[in-house]
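All the exercises in this workshop are built on plain-text protein records. A record pairs a protein's sequence with a compact description of its fold. Backbone structure tokens are a discrete shorthand for how the chain folds in space. Once this layout is familiar, the rest of the handout is easier to follow. As an example, a complete record with its sequence and its structure tokens follows.
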Amino acid sequence: MNLKRVVGFALFWVAVGIILALFLPNTFVEVLCVLLCILAGYNLFFC
């Protein structure tokens, strides 16, 4: 997988996350989802 595909994949899912955030009820749930995604991404990328 080259870097262009990885960046495209990441940007696609960032956009999906922003769309999902429009429908979440409050900021706490959004921040919780962001922290979960950061933790999962870190574990998938570095571990």
Summary: The radius of gyration is 12 Å. The chain has two helices and no strands. Helices lie at 3-23, 27-46. Residues 3-46 form one domain.
